[in-house]
What we know:
By secondary structure, this protein is mainly beta.
Amino acid sequence: MRSAIDSDPVEIQVEFAQPIGASSFTPATFVTNPSAQAGTVIGQFDAHTITIQFPLDITADTTLVYSGTVPNILTPQTITH
Length: 81
């Protein structure tokens, strides 16, 4: 993950260095902290960026942790948003 920004109170956009496909990821492998909310929906924003939606407001959270198994993606990873 190269960057992560809150794009909505319940959504984060995550940019990767290489092109990625949203369908490669499982939403629940993205968790916000400190509220420990798991992602529920992943969408494709552009070739390098996905959006992750969460069930509740995440504006008080400060980090996002990815712990999935997509090939060539370092895991676990933590990024500030």
